[in-house]
Amino acid sequence: MNVLVVGGAGYIGSHMVKRLVEEGHAVWVLDNHSTGGRVALPFGTLVKGDLADAPLLDQLFQAHAFQAVLHFAAHSLVGESVTSPSKYYQNNVVNTLNLLDAMCRHQVSNLIFSSTAAVFGSPNYTPIDEQHPTAPINPYGASKWMVERILQDYANAYGLNSVALRYFNACGADPDVQLGEWHEPETHLIPLVLQTALGKRDAITVFGRDYPTPDGTCIRDYIHVEDLCTAHALALDHLVSGKLSGACAFNLGNGSGFSVQQVVAAAQKVVGQDGYTITIQEGERRAGDPAVLVADARLAQQVLGWRSQYAELQTIIEHAWAWEKKRWLVG
Questions:
Q1: Is the terminal CB of the chain with fewer CB neighbours within 10 Å at N or C?
Q2: Is 140 tagged catalytic?
Q3: What's the pTM?
Q4: Which domains does the chain have, with CATH numbers?
Q5: Helix or strand or coil: residue 250?
């Protein structure tokens, strides 16, 4: 197929572009390099541009007979969304409307949308399934929830079929070490821990050790980026083949969480093999951090046939560590 990947130079998007090219698809990547693009993307055809540019979208859709679009282009920092909500609603909602309208104008009816567990807000129960109420507590989560709601309306009115995939904690790196996680600023726990080992950060802060969990630290559901790509590929196949229609949503996670302390301990085991150590400092609880966030991904398993290939924490960290060493020590 001819596929457009919006935000395909970013962390998850770039891994997905590689997967699509390996599967034989012709891939065009639209990215404004606001957070991605620091590493040369060796896959697909890169077009530098923004979803705010409607004429550019029309040009792309006219030039290439896309069968599907994968949408990864979003701002995703929770704290920034609270202080700069306009930025998040403009990019994540308004610019997505530009994309959806372009798809409708050019009769492209298949969309995979990168959503988030943040649509649920503070959980009423865990593991979190698709029936859990959506009640986002920050503009980032609200912007993603708004798009999911819009997708339902576009399915009903215009026949635009979509799958929203709600990630929990994306992590890991390409096992071939061609791609990996690279955010500025970095906010994800695993790269922060590994960069601390490399001396790029003074210490990793553990925010609170008095949560109602076995070791007192927060538990999160970490899902390898390659497993996310597998879910996207399966969702795309289901959409294009007609097995799915309308606006669908699936939660993606391993279904079992790891605590902050477990992540740090596993990372120390991995980096210790190379003679590195991780410096830890203690911090107070952060406001709004739930004790446990874990996905119930059984619906994706049942409907899409999806399974995690890299569910082991040590494997996830080994892949991420190989990438961090290449990034900082090899270049």
A1: C
A2: yes
A3: 0.96
A4: 2-170+224-252 (3.40.50.720), 189-220+255-294+309-330 (3.90.25.10)
A5: strand
